[in-house]
Structures are given as C-alpha cells and as structure tokens.
Specification:
The chain is of the alpha+beta class and 181 residues long. It is 43% helix and 18% strand. The strands form 2 sheets. The chain has a 3-stranded antiparallel beta sheet with strand order 1-2-3, with no helix packed on it. A 3-stranded mixed beta sheet has the order 5-4-6. The chain binds zinc ion (ZN).
C-alpha cells in the first residue's frame, strides 16, 4: 500500500472496523511521511461485473468512477459523502446479488438516477440533466469519466439546470465544458 499523496510505503493503520453490513473491513490509515490520512476497504471479491459500453466494448465495473460522478452531481447539495458511498455500494451489491455479470452503461446510469431521486431532488436534477444531454450522443459513462478527469475545465462552471437539458442535440466542446455534475 502506497500513500496516494507522496507514494511512501510507510503507512500505519489508525482504526479498523466492520463496514457494509459486515461485508468489508474499513481501515483508516495515515502516511508516516506526509501525515496524509485516507481510508481503505477490504472486501470479498465477487465475480467481476463487466460494463458494456454503447459501442459494444467492455470494461470492468468501476465503482470509483461511478462514485466520482455521483459526487459531482451532489456538489453544493447537502447529500453527505456517506450517503453517496452507500448509494454506490447499494448499486454494486444489487448487481452482485442478482448475479449479474454484464451490465450496460445505460443501465448503470438509470440505476444511479433512481437512487439519486431517493436521496435528494437537486442532485437528481443535475445528474439527470447531464445524462439526458449525452444520451444518444456518446456513451454516458465515457462522458462521466471525461468530466471526472477534466476537473479543471468544469470547476469554475455552474448553471447546469438552465443550459442544454433537452435531448439529442450534439453538444459542442464548449457546451460540454459548461456542464458541471
Ligand atoms: Zn504520504
């Protein structure tokens, strides 16, 4: 295990406890070099779920990617990080328990929307706006990944609700830069 900040391997565990209804162990860790604190989860390895993208290519299901998208959608709302993590955990658990080994990115998007709707209306509207804008244009999760990777471009932008929420018109790159999820 390396420190995510300084890559030191000199890490100590501050606290360990059971999480996710006993399905995992959560450990709070601290880097002895730079004092950065972070959390790791040790969990049962289930059969990997493959995500099928719009154009048919596959990649393994990436819970962190989905969590980042949810976090963006919930920015400036009062949805707690805990609730967001629980949302993604619930989604993954649903897939595991259904023994579903393949899922399309579109299905994932719909599942996230359903769960966000249960959480908070504002987050739902933001996520749904982005989702609707890109649906039929490009693979939704690809866009999500791009937005997450491209934090600087979207960090200063707002007002998603008032721009480009309708349907299938292909967003230009400048339109895309105005979307904040
Ligand atoms: Zn460090």
């Amino acid at each position: 295990m390396k420190c995510p900040k300084c890559s030191s391997r000199n890490i100590r565990v501050l606290e360990s406890r059971s999480a996710e209804a006993g399905q995992s162990v959560r450990r709070r860790r601290e880097c002895m070099e730079c004092k950065f604190r972070f959390t790791t989860y040790e969990r049962i390895e289930f059969v990997p779920i493959m995500t099928i993208k719009r154009e048919g290519s596959q990649e393994s299901f990436d819970r962190n990617k989905i969590l980042k998208g949810v976090m963006r959608a919930c920015e400036k709302t009062d949805v707690s990080v805990k609730a967001m993590e629980a949302l993604v955990e619930g989604l993954e658990e649903t897939l595991q328990l259904a023994d579903k080994q393949e899922i399309t990115t579109r299905e994932i998007g719909e599942m996230v929307l359903q769960r966000l709707q249960d959480l908070r209306e504002v987050a739902y509207v933001r996520f749904a706006s982005v989702y609707r804008q890109f649906r039929g244009v490009r693979d939704f999760m690809d866009e999500l990944g791009t937005l997450v990777d491209n934090k600087d471009a979207i960090a200063s932008e707002h007002n998603l609700e008032t721009s480009n929420v309708d349907g299938d018109s292909a967003p230009s790159s400048s339109d895309r830069a105005s979307v904040s999820i």
